[in-house]
């Protein structure tokens, strides 16, 4: 009797254990499986690019003066306004240069005045004097000619009344008078055609030398003023390169281009310069406003975006660029594309295009002035709108090798849901969702992870076991 009771208890325990294990298997099966849902939405494809935060512009600050730094008034990171004194230089050298330039200008002015006086003298005195000498030579020639003609007549008619020496003398006087007239005529032409033009050229040369001396004087005055170096813009000091006591070279007189004192950034706007892979630049270009596109007409009107669902690639020009900054990982920023570089840069056999993005979100003040910090831009395109989407993990190959999804189906007489394969026609994907063109319906559940079957379950369903 006691053995019978023990046997009954054992059988009951075995039966209860089987039922418990069966129920546990159902629970485990449910935990092994994972589900997603077919939903209707736009397929979003993000294009990511890394880059750095940059100010609107940068200016290198140099001095037109050379000399020793005696004071530096701003440190890196401080804000400056246009006209603020940045650096003071020792003035001694530039003051000496200014004094020498003033003396050179004065000498050039004297030379010009002298040249102008000479020109007037040649116009008012030289030419009249030459003309008077010519007129005198003409009168002398006329007198000698009259005497020559009278004695020539005597020589021909009554040569015995004239001594040979007298005839020779009058001939010589006549030739001399003719020569003096020709010389006087030459002097007149010289005074008019040579002396005056030369004097005018000398005036022009002296005037040009004065202009040059005046320009050098102005440069010297500017260099003296530049011993007080002022900020040309409103901005922030990015870097300070020199300290008190250091010698610097002029930015205008040095062959090396001069010494850089500071770098100032215009931080009125904040930008990100992103390096976009050339495989993605086409889509990014379509997102950009017309004036930001290389080769596009900056005055072209933007086509209005239609709200009608489409199946072709559609990228909205007004879609903001999402920006993540490493310094503020939990702080999202947004911006708009302002310019796309027309030429790629190749580094390590990878071509990228520089895309300049102006950050427009209200929180941009948090990164204003943090030039050079790392950031990542995400450009969002919408290849397909209003499509049926399934999770990427749900797409699998069926028994015949075709692509599709597994859906849970409860067969007649069973309380358990079993995976059933549904072949599907698939479209684009972004690595997270896949467009389904046919094969499933909206809100239908799909397996993203199939349940694991036991060996006995595989045998019961006629499947091969390991």
Outline the structure in words.
Strands 2-9-13-11-10-14 form a six-stranded antiparallel barrel. It has five helices and 20 strands. It has a domain of 132 residues: Helix Hairpins (Orthogonal Bundle), CATH 1.10.287. The longest helix is centred in the first third of the chain and has 66 residues. With 466 residues, it is α+β, with helices and mostly antiparallel strands.
The SS-based structural class is alpha+beta
Morphology: elongated
Quick one: CATH class of the domain at 94-225? Answer: Mainly Alpha
Q: What is the string of helix and strand elements? A: HEEEEEHHEEEEHEEEEEEEEEEEH
In CATH terms, what is the fold-level topology of the domain at 94-225?
Answer: Helix Hairpins
Helix content: 25-40%
Cross-sheet strand order for the largest sheet: 2-9-13-11-10-14
Strand share of the residues? 25-35%
Low-confidence stretches: 24-30, 301-317
Strand element count:
20
CATH architectural type of the domain at 94-225: Orthogonal Bundle
Tally of individual helices: 5
Largest sheet: number of strands, sense, barrel closure: 6 strands, antiparallel, barrel
Distance between the termini: 45 Å
In a nutshell, what does this entry contain?
The chain is α+β, with helices and mostly antiparallel strands and 466 residues long.
Layout of helices and strands, plus pairs?
Elements lengths: L1 H31 L1 E4 L1 E24 L4 E6 L6 E2 L4 E5 L2 H66 L6 H62 L2 E3 L4 E6 L6 E2 L11 E18 L3 H7 L33 E5 L2 E13 L4 E3 L2 E10 L14 E18 L4 E2 L5 E8 L6 E7 L1 E5 L3 E6 L6 E5 L5 H6 L6
Antiparallel strand pairs: 1-20, 2-9, 2-14, 3-5, 3-8, 4-7, 5-6, 7-9, 9-13, 10-11, 10-14, 11-13, 12-13, 14-19, 15-16, 16-17, 18-19
Helix pairs in contact: 2-3
């Amino acid at each position: 009797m006691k053995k019978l009771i023990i046997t009954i208890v054992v059988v009951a325990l075995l039966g209860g254990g089987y039922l418990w294990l069966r129920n546990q298997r159902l629970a485990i099966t449910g935990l092994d499986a994972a589900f997603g849902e077919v939903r209707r939405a736009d397929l979003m494809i993000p294009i990511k690019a890394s880059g750095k935060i940059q100010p609107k512009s940068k200016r290198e600050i140099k001095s037109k003066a050379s000399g020793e730094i005696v004071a530096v008034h701003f440190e890196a990171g401080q804000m400056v306004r246009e006209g603020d004194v940045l650096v003071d230089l020792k003035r001694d050298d530039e003051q000496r240069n200014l004094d020498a330039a003033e003396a050179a200008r004065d000498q050039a002015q004297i030379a010009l005045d002298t040249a102008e006086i000479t020109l007037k003298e040649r116009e008012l005195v030289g030419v009249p004097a030459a003309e008077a000498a010519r007129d005198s030579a003409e009168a002398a020639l006329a007198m000698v000619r009259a005497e020559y003609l009278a004695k020539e007549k005597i020589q021909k008619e009554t040569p015995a009344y004239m001594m040979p020496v007298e005839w020779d003398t009058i001939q010589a006087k006549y030739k001399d008078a003719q020569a003096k007239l020709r010389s006087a005529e030459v002097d007149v032409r010289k005074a008019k055609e040579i002396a005056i033009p030369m004097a005018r050229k000398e005036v022009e040369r002296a005037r040009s030398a004065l202009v040059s001396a005046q320009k050098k004087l102005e440069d010297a005055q500017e260099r003296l003023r530049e011993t007080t170096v002022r900020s040309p813009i409103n901005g922030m000091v990015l870097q300070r390169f020199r300290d008190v006591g250091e010698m610097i070279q002029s930015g205008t007189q040095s062959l090396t281009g001069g010494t850089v004192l500071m770098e100032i950034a215009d931080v009125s706007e904040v930008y990100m310069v992103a390096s976009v892979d050339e495989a993605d630049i086409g889509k990014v270009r379509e997102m950009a406003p017309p004036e930001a596109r290389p080769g596009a007409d900056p005055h072209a009107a933007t086509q209005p975006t239609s709200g009608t669902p489409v199946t072709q690639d559609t990228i909205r020009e007004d879609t903001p660029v999402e920006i993540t900054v490493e310094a503020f990982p939990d702080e999202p920023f947004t911006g708009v594309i302002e310019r796309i570089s027309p030429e790629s840069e190749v580094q390590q056999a990878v071509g990228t295009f520089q895309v300049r993005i102006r950050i427009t979100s209200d929180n941009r003040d948090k990164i204003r002035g943090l030039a050079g910090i790392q950031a990542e831009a995400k450009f969002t395109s919408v290849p397909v709108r209003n499509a049926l989407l399934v999770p990427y993990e749900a797409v699998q190959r069926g028994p015949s090798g075709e692509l599709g999804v597994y859906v849970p189906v409860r067969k007649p007489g069973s309380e358990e849901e079993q995976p059933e394969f549904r072949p599907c026609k698939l479209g684009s994907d972004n690595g997270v969702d896949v467009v389904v063109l046919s094969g499933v319906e909206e809100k239908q559940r799909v397996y993203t992870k199939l349940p694991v079957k036991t060996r006995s379950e595989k045998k019961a369903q006629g499947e091969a076991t390991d």
